[in-house]
From TrEMBL:
UniProt record similarity statement: Belongs to the phosphate/phosphite/phosphonate binding protein family.
Classification via InterPro entries: PhnD, Phosphnate-bd
Organism: Paracoccus contaminans
Protein name, per record: Phosphonate ABC transporter substrate-binding protein
Domain of life, source organism: Bacteria
Keyword Signal attributed: yes
GO biological process terms held by the UniProt record: organic phosphonate transport; transmembrane transport
Keywords: Signal
NCBIfam families named among the record's database cross-references: 3A0109s03R, PhnD
GO cellular component, one term: ATP-binding cassette (ABC) transporter complex
A Pfam short name: Phosphonate-bd
PANTHER family tied to this protein: PHOSPHONATES-BINDING PERIPLASMIC PROTEIN (PTHR35841)
Residues annotated as signal peptide: 1-19
């Protein structure tokens, strides 16, 4: 990992920056998935460490939806964020020169992937997607990889039409992963799709992911839920930085996050949404397939 990180930092140092003026501030975007205050709390330690490392004021921004973070990066008002793979795909397809992926979260087994997980209430007699016929399925956000893109591709291939009224009675967007979990718990939707690493125990919400965060927050008892669907492995989304940032700023911030697991394990837990093996270098090529999938889905919608 040290060798790979050294190579990543060397590439960042050698990459021409579009704006070399010293920065006066640094803004970090945090994707939706849980309420804004919890997102701020989970990432406050990273904000403080970044402020120390960069020597300028650092602020956290928690837009209401995924697109708020994506647009902030594209518009230059945000300097860094951990995006989902689909979110990165949208940013890249909109402007290939806006951001660059530098690191990716790893699981305890060293892998850098996770799963889209379908859930339902145990007492609603729903054991699989076969039992969801004529019922309401909830998704988090149209720009979520696990909360929409991957299920939207995989479910129709398995015979479950995504057109409201054809198989599912309706498709609803809840606004985020936490909102989906709460909607299932409260019976506002019959089933929902969220994300988890798929490692560890179901009753803990697995080791990391939206379910784990919901359990930690006391929002749900996993014994009241059942898993009704699981996707193929999905690549973890990248930590991206704005390409126009000075090279030394990108190097310092990347090194900070790469070393976070050793510096402050509790902080890394919050930033990574649960147990993690740390962050390792990643490059654009890791998301080529997701970018192509997103491009095709957008073309389908356009037609």
């Amino acid at each position: 990992m040290k060798t790979a990180l050294s190579l990543t930092l060397a590439v960042l140092a050698a990459t021409p920056a579009l704006a070399q003026e010293p920065i006066t501030r640094f803004n970090i975007g945090v994707l939706g998935g849980e309420n804004a205050q919890d997102r701020m709390t989970s990432n406050e330690c990273l904000r403080k460490y970044a402020e120390e490392a960069l020597g300028v004021p650092v602020k956290l921004f928690t837009p209401a939806d995924y697109d708020g973070v994506i647009q902030g990066l594209l518009g230059g008002t945000l300097d860094a964020a951990i995006l989902g793979a689909s979110g990165y795909a949208k940013a890249y397809l909109t402007d290939p020169e806006a951001v660059e992926p530098v690191l990716v979260k790893t699981n305890l087994d060293g892998a850098a992937n996770y799963f889209s997980i379908g859930i339902a209430r145990k007492d609603h007699a729903i054991a699989s997607m076969d039992d969801m016929k004529g019922k309401v399925l909830g998704f988090g956000d149209p720009n979520s990889t696990s909360g929409y893109l991957i299920p939207a591709v995989e479910l129709p291939k398995q015979g479950y039409s995504m057109k409201p009224g054809e198989y599912f009675k309706d498709i609803k967007f809840t606004g985020g992963h936490e909102q989906t979990i709460v909607a299932v718990k409260n019976g506002d939707v019959d089933g929902g799709v969220t994300w988890a690493d798929g490692l560890g125990n179901w009753e803990d919400g697995y080791n990391s992911g939206a379910l784990r965060k919901a359990v930690d927050a006391g929002l749900v008892d996993m014994n009241d839920l059942v898993q009704i669907w699981k996707s193929e492995p999905i690549p973890e989304g990248p930590l991206v930085v704005r390409k126009a940032l000075p090279a030394d700023v990108k190097e310092k911030f990347t090194a900070l996050v790469a070393g976070l697991i050793d510096k402050d394990k509790e902080c890394a837990y919050g930033v990574a949404s649960g147990e993690t093996g740390g962050f390792k270098p990643v490059a654009h090529d890791a998301y080529a397939t997701i970018i192509e999938v997103r491009k095709l889905e957008e073309q389908k919608k356009a037609n």
